[in-house]
Amino acid sequence: MSTKFPKHLKPSKPHGESLLLQERQRATFNPDDLANFIYGKKYIKKRNDILQILQNDSVLGDKSHRYYNGRHMRFRKSLDAAKRFAELQSIYQWSDEEFAVAESLFDEPSAFRLHRTMFMPTIANQGTEEQKRIYLEPALRYEIIGCYAQTELGHGSNVRGIETTAVYQPETETFVLNSPTLTASKWWIGGLGVAANHAIVMARLVSQDKDYGPHPFIVQIRSLENHEPLKGITVGDIGPKFGFNTVDNGFILFDHVHVPHIAMLARYSRIDRKTGEYIKPPNSKLAYGTMVFVRANIVLESCLVLARAATVATRYSAVRVQGSDASNPKKVTDSNGDLQQVETPVLDYTMQQYRLFPIIAQAYACHFTGQKMHHMYNENQERMSQGDFSYLADLHASSSGLKSLTTTLAVSAIEECRRACGGHGYSLFSGLGHFYQDYLPKATWEGDNYLLTQQTARYLIKTMRSVVAKREESNFSSQYLSEYLSNPRARCSFTRIEDLNNPELLLSAFKFRSAFLADKAVHALDVQKISWNDMLIDIYRISRAHCQLLLVSNFIQASFSGPSSNMKQALQQVALLFCVSTLEQELSDFLACGYLSPEQALMVKKKLVNSLKLIRPNAVALVDAFGIPDYMLNSALGENKGDVYEKMAAMAELEPLNQTKVADGYEDYIRPLIHKGKKNWKVGKDGIARL
Amino acid sequence: MSTKFPKHLKPSKPHGESLLLQERQRATFNPDDLANFIYGKKYIKKRNDILQILQNDSVLGDKSHRYYNGRHMRFRKSLDAAKRFAELQSIYQWSDEEFAVAESLFDEPSAFRLHRTMFMPTIANQGTEEQKRIYLEPALRYEIIGCYAQTELGHGSNVRGIETTAVYQPETETFVLNSPTLTASKWWIGGLGVAANHAIVMARLVSQDKDYGPHPFIVQIRSLENHEPLKGITVGDIGPKFGFNTVDNGFILFDHVHVPHIAMLARYSRIDRKTGEYIKPPNSKLAYGTMVFVRANIVLESCLVLARAATVATRYSAVRVQGSDASNPKKVTDSNGDLQQVETPVLDYTMQQYRLFPIIAQAYACHFTGQKMHHMYNENQERMSQGDFSYLADLHASSSGLKSLTTTLAVSAIEECRRACGGHGYSLFSGLGHFYQDYLPKATWEGDNYLLTQQTARYLIKTMRSVVAKREESNFSSQYLSEYLSNPRARCSFTRIEDLNNPELLLSAFKFRSAFLADKAVHALDVQKISWNDMLIDIYRISRAHCQLLLVSNFIQASFSGPSSNMKQALQQVALLFCVSTLEQELSDFLACGYLSPEQALMVKKKLVNSLKLIRPNAVALVDAFGIPDYMLNSALGENKGDVYEKMAAMAELEPLNQTKVADGYEDYIRPLIHKGKKNWKVGKDGIARL
């Protein structure tokens, strides 16, 4: 017998539904207009079509089991889903973009993820035509399943440090793969623990006694017949993780495993089959283009992450009432049309606004910059195909820093939104717990968020040196650096809070600060001869400053251009909030460079409170505009309808411990203690033993 | 057949053990001296005695299962442990303090936690002698198990908003407990979901048609005989949470449940049994004393939390090598006595130091302030017993803000340390994942970390008004506020980086900043008539500034007084790092109040890098001094010996998915896909099918 909540009990009034309705009525714009502006109708329709397929699918439609299962059952269910995705892919012939939309709606990483995102693309990019024919075609049909094995137990991001070797033997025409130490074990490899039967293995290529460094080899690791590991291979799952437990991250060790000559991916560099001679790759900058593309996607994805976290916390904060703000007592019209005084929705408290609204603004900021990067990526590809590489360095530098900044923002936003939901944020039913746990690795992979900033800063420092030497090419970066050099003693001009509504003034402040930091770094490195290692803290800040400037600049451009409308005005307020809250958060930089005075700093703080007030009536509409479906949120607190408490109760009813009148464990561990006191019991008229 | 790592493989050199040995040899002091200084020998012996008991216990000694189980099995094992703790308690007659040490070493919350920490203390404090006899005595023997049911589904921290009612009926001499709505359901109640058969229920007391607000009732909820819920009661577990899943947080609803007159805890206020007349409680400030005690413990505990996180990340950062710092290549002596050039331990990178060393410093800071609060608590209890309440307001205000600040620091430190461990930080084997998840609620309970700061700020603002009106009592707070008022245009005097070694200069800066913020708030509230709600962001900062000042002040006092020694000098460097890193982190405040100039701000940044260098040789010794045993850490990365990679491999071998040659799920979800490609297979001489 399972525990059920009494059906006649409803939440106390006002109900969440009426509170959200009221929020939606007071917005100054129509969220559909904003949705169309940011996504375009075509994308919205596509997302909705895919949503319908997933929601109605017998395997993928029901997410209700997700929060209760241990890893074993979660992994099984995830394999089931992965298989179903492979089938749907073949039914609907989704494009890569459509597949990505479907995966993002389903919102659970699977064992086949790296097969699609790394194994197949690597063969496609680095394999010969023959290798593509042999491996890629069956891979596309999931007749082999692959993974990408680069990271080792002893070496994460530093690929040059890997220890696995592949020694070519011309006499057998084989490479001998070997793991000389325990730390050489491949580790963290998604899909390897259970699912994959092939792997692309990065190993140090050795031929004719010379070490040519890491190269990719395609290696069968498990039997196609019965899935058992092949001879000389030790392979398994690396065990439980903080998140991502629906993926079988694995380890693998090779004990002198022979693989044929064709195993080495040979589009660029290769080994002569007979002699073992190494043939060098042609020099290519094209790989950087791909990285920009991947990172542009990460920036766009971080918009979605921020938006999703903000949606849950904002809607719940409109429904959750707590105490009352004496200066502004809250009244709502109930279903009978009566005006009723109620407790204050926590969204009315300035501190809650201060925690949440900047996150909404960050989501929009990341959207416009992600879009911009896609445009720039396309323009750069176009130019590179014509032999013009002039865009690449700037674009690569910006994309590195933006990946770091926006994923850092997104990670901290999920956790901040979870905490801003108070106690219930800690329940998995909030939908923010697993979400946080599964998103976290983004801060480490595709470039560690600290290491990446060195690339951005290095580029800016180099550009600053060029500008000083009048060798500048003219792009956004060199222009603002050069502006700064023309007047390094410039000071911010505003005198009244209202002046902070001027986007140009805000943009100038971000330009000055970033250029100041780059200039100081050049001085420290070139004049004071401070080591790069001693500069790492400053370097992190330079990248951050430059990328915040990019976000500010792109947001202002997108929202302050084109025809005006209610929607546009609302968006402009969000852009101003983004600028002012970022300014406030980084105030020490703006003060330390002397650009802002202490008096101006206090004005910025006041302006921020003022900006929060302007956003308040539109808060729910602004998250609605992202159009994140309930299917994706899987959250009792954040769903569109606002029936928070009914959902919490319904989800608690499904808890496995509630499926019996007395839970497992009682007999063994509780009863023996309680029954020791039996002599003191008195049995009442109702037959119940009491003290 | 389970997967085993090849036994002959060792990690590449230098091994973690030799790297840690080297770190320990270069320290400038003996960590035992520091351990004795902070804990005292008596405490260290006690901790060690308890550790021996736990480590050798058949139920509690083995933690190796912890990271693999789903909730069901984890909860069962935790019940087993809770029962064992009850037995050990009766064997060793541990004091409350000793029990707390044992629990902290065991490091897993249990279903009996609230029975001990809330159920019994509430009866002891608020029950009559008769109630203590009836309920407390069997509770001490675990013959009844209780919980504390205050929070409701619709109301968290705001106890005045609770909806559960207890209406007194003189004719039956019973209280009728009722949950009028769904949101009235008690929720989040630890121990209620499965274990408890009694609960202290906070309900609005209604008698003679009058609502007297929340009062505590002791209510039997499950049968002592068979543990089934009693009539009129709906009770169960609230479902999975982000952490704390070894605890059965529960919900409960009452449908007109009658409980006898004795159910109301009646030491302070009570209902006349015959008439239903309400007899008011005597006015008492004593409850505040208890809160101070609880919060002092939380501050001390946050030291342990920071120390534990820092121990794992610091030791692993000494063992983990990655790339090399060209300006400072690293050499170590290997076991053959040869000097070997190796990759750089990540602890040598300034950015890693910047992330970790301030956390070590925060741990020490929290220790000294926690100790100080215990002294002040004792002194205050002494005074209150003589009718002197003059200490109470200041102590209560500081303890509120310190609870907020130190738990916020501790939460973010665990996560920062986890991330600073790179990829392996994400493995549960790091020991930081569950640790973070289980510690998190501390930021919400015993006072939400945002709400609490209002108490601190309100007191400071009030004190500032008194000082202005020359009505000040003389204590630490009023003194520094008054100093500020005597010279609100004071400016910081340092001109060289070396000046920042002066603790008095640093202390003055923290005093000025806190007083400035309090003064501005008084002006905003009293002169500009800005509402409290619009001031909430400032209020949060005032509390933070005041409490950072307390940490700075207590740390300086503890480390710069008494006889000098190598240990003391090392500790002083940690104190200076704490001051400078906190200063740097809050730089915008110090600049915006005009106390620091932009030039001075840049000097602070340089001093910080300088401070990190001074800490570097002592980093491992500083975390060793906390003496956190491996049993508690349960971490492959952080153990004392440094055999990181061997531990990672050994723990991966225990992963359930690795216990069979082919994992569950293959037959159903992978084989059908792979075998579709059978027609393309070629079988080699080794009998293996290949593409």
From TrEMBL, chains A, B:
It is found in: Peroxisome. Residues 30-145 form the Acyl-coenzyme A oxidase N-terminal domain. Its cofactor is FAD. Keywords: FAD, Fatty acid metabolism, Flavoprotein, Lipid metabolism, Oxidoreductase, Peroxisome. Its main location: other. Residues 288-461 form the Acyl-CoA oxidase C-alpha1 domain. Residues 147-257 form the Acyl-CoA oxidase/dehydrogenase middle domain. FAD binds at T151, G190. InterPro entries: ACOX_C_alpha1, Acyl-CoA_ox_N, Acyl-CoA_Oxase/DH_mid-dom, Acyl-CoA_Oxase/DH_mid-dom_sf, Acyl-CoA_oxidase, Acyl-CoA_oxidase_C, AcylCo_DH-like_C, AcylCoA_DH/ox_N_sf. This is Acyl-coenzyme A oxidase.
